Amino acid sequence: MNWRACAGRRARMPDSQKLVVSFAPFWHNGSRIPERNRQIMLAALPAALFGVYRFGIPALGVLALAMSSAVLWELAFTRVAKRPVSVGDGSAAVIGLLFGMMLPATLPWWAVITGTFIAVVVARQIYGGIGANPFNPVSVAVAILMLAWKSRMDFDVALVNYIFDFPAVFPLSAAKAFGSDAVKSFSLLDLFLGRQTGGIGAVFGAGLVLGGAYLILRGIIRWEIPVSFLAGVAATAAVFHAADPARFASPAFHLLTGFTLIGAFFLATEDATSPVNLVPMLIYGAVVGSVAVFIRNIGFFAEGLVFAVLVGNLIQPLLDKIRPKALGKVE
Amino acid sequence: MTTKRPFWGFGTPCLEHTQLPRSLDRPDPVPLPRTLTVLHPRPPEARAVPALKIGDTVNTGQKLSLYGTADYVTSPATGKITALSPMPGSFGRSFTAVAIAPEMPDVFDGEFDAVHRSPSLEAARGLLAAIPGMPAWERLADPERPIKTLVIRCVDEDLLVVTHQHVLNARGRDIQNGIRILKQLSGIEDVVILARREAVQGYGSISGRIVEADHRYPAALTPLVMARLFGKVIPAGRTSEDMGFCFLSAEAVASIGAAFDTGRVPVAKTLTVIHKDGSLRLAEARIGTAVDDVLHRFGVAIAAGDRIVFGGPMRGVAVPSPAYPVQPDTDAILILDAGRAAQLTDYPCINCGECVRVCPARMQINLLVRYLEAGKYEDAEELYDLSACVECGLCSYVCVSKIPILQYITLAKHELARMRRTESPNA
Fold first, then answer.
1. Which of A186, A267, B12, B240 is 20 to 30 Å from the Cα of B425, by its Cα?
2. How far apart are CA A30 and CA B399, in angstroms?
3. CA–CA separation, A203 and A51 (whole Å)
């Protein structure tokens, strides 16, 4: 039988006429991981820069070391593990920046690079890298540092040599030790505008809200998580406050102090460790916010928000089971 | 091509179907090329001697059945067969490519002419299966699944494609005639015209219930039309025919109308040609015309690395060579510049949830894709609704990690179907 090549057409087709074949769709909306991470860093910048203004050059040193060491840890690990080099996607830089923003400005260099090692390598790379981490890397690192070097991470101890024109006491420690009367002197506006001690990038509430709102409007984080998170904080704090106003501080105080706002907009919203559907997002945010206040009010730590985020990460796979019925699903 | 992501990313992307531009009122005819290639839906068989051989002369509209089976293609021209060769298709399909050197003038085959005055379903199935638009006769006349409603799709399923809008505008009489024939053949009384609101001028001569199609992608896809416009959700793994609805394209109906009107089997396909810059032209080419002959007509040059896609940007199929022929169901040819086609990566899912929010079938794609990447197709179907997918491609379109999600889904469905085919005889 005489099967000839398709009409001799292939023969007259020059090599340059070979086409690239790929699968549909042939369009993409242009979103990219590096761009997404750049936006997150941009949104975190107002609060971070305010921290440098407030705490001076040491704060800049901590932020710079945190970011650079996070990137280098990632580079080193991907080299050793023979994985594709992924530092270009910016996610290690985001981890470094956010981790630095949670720290006291005086944290020694070895603690900073230990922290970024925990965040980048232990909490993320050994689980498979970007998207595969079960827990928020920044929260894991801060939690381990809080357990390992308690006094170094205690803002009252760490910032003792600073002179501020506002009460130089970590508001949540004061509230925990002496009840709500001790924090009456903090005006809410002062707290919101960063006239408080705390993490380098965590004290400037206005900047964090601004950055968070920007990320929500750009569609990079989901409004449901910060909103339900803050609602969870407020509602739980309100119940405590109503039960014992002398011992437990007001909801507004809890919303504006410690890691609440950086947690709401930058930690709890991390993609890999938060749910994606409406109802799970609302439950997740509310649980994290609520657990954070429980730890503050009746737990061991004055500020245990990172543990609350980890609890939220822990229940995320369960929450993902709550999902809308797919089109045409047969039960 | 990369479409620009809007600055405000709050809502879901709004991709709208293109309305047929007024300037596109008639297709540009593509001259008869030196070779036409039609694809017989069966590969060459080792023992079977094909009914036709190289050097045989065929007539325009002649039924070419090579292996004595029910499968056939229609000769798009009069001329000699110059080659018969195996041709691989996607997903394991394979064809026999029949190359014909066309000669003018056309000599029309008499087989259909002899029967067209007394329309019958047998004649239609036996002679009109490979006409432009490829009407699905077997689905229309399946005694197991009686069809109650015939839906004439006068909107295109993919973006930028305007072929069926044009057919509605330009060939109202043929569509009207086709509806009459189809009603007569199948006994279906309920005929629905699915069309854009703006396409009103085409309705004048057409009898049928008019249902307005949403111009936002992917609302015109069959499962979504069924769910949103007819209120009938197709259960996962079933088809619209199971629900008593059969969808035919406007061009298929117009081809049927024209065939029974003239006694000649239609062989010219209307196509939307989408240029690299996104501008549209309409072309009319014989089925079997090679893509490069169509592009030559419009002066399009193809550079190394460019992509040619049969269909639109969201659901089309890339063809491997400019020699690939226009098929009876090729509604559009999209030319994509090498640098502008979506690039895919092997980056992992970062769980951003964009796909979940954009999915019209409400699937948990973020979780599904993990099963698909691991090849766990059965779990993917059982736990994460693989079969609910309407294959719109929006998940891949919005994926930050640029994962080929639609490709994974299509492959998984294909593999599951293949597994079931091999299992069923042993069951």
1. B240
2. 9
3. 7
Tokens of B413: 């469905």
Query: Tokens for A330?
Result: 């047969």
**3-class DSSP assignment, residue B252:** helix
Q: Could you tell me which of A303, A40, A324, A98 has the C-alpha nearest to residue B359?
A: A324
- CA-wise closest residue to B250 among B160, B151, B327, B334: B151
Q: Which of A47, A164, A152 is nearest to A110 (CA)?
A: A152
Burial of A288 (0-12, 13-18, 19+ CB in 10 A): buried
Please list every residue in chain B whose beta carbon sits closer than 8 Å to the beta carbon of residue A324.
362
User: Which 3 state secondary structure label does DSSP give B309?
Assistant: strand
Q: Select the residue from B47, B85, B91, B333 to test the A interface by mutation, using most A Cβ atoms within 10 A.
A: B85
> For an interface test with A, which of B16, B94, B314, B321 has the most A Cβ atoms less than 10 Å from its Cβ?
B321
In sequence order, the β-bridge partners of residue B332 are B272
Over residues B205-233, mean pLDDT: 87
Q: What is the pLDDT of residues B377-409, one digit of tens each?
A: 999 999 999 999 999 999 999 999 999 999 999
Residue B218 CA to residue B238 CA, distance in Å, equals: 19
A contacts of B2 (beta carbons < 8 Å): 27-30
Q: Domain boundaries in chain B?
A: 354-426
Residues 6+ apart with CB under 8 A from A144: A115, A118
At A175 the three-state DSSP class reads helix
DSSP-derived 3-state class of residue A297: helix
Q: What angle do CA B23, B29, B32 make, to 5 degrees?
A: 165
Q: Read off the pTM.
A: 0.90
What is the tens place of the pLDDT at every residue in B99-123? 999 998 889 998 889 888 888 888 8
d(CA B230, CA B207): 19
Q: Three-class SS of residue A131?
A: coil
- Amino acid making up residue A167: P
CA distance B53 to chain A (A): 9
Angle at B238 between CA B233 and CA B240, to 5 degrees: 60
Contact yes or no for A20 and B8 at CB 8 A? no
Write the CA distances from A86 to A74, A76, A120, integer angstroms. Answer: 8, 11, 12
ipTM of the complex in this document: 0.89
- A21: nearest Cα among B274, B322, B289: B322
How far is residue B266's CA from residue B261's CA, in Å, rounded to a whole number? 11
Rounded to the nearest angstrom, the minimum Cα separation between B201 and chain A is 32
How many residues are recorded in chain B? 427
Contact A30 B349 (CB under 8 A): no
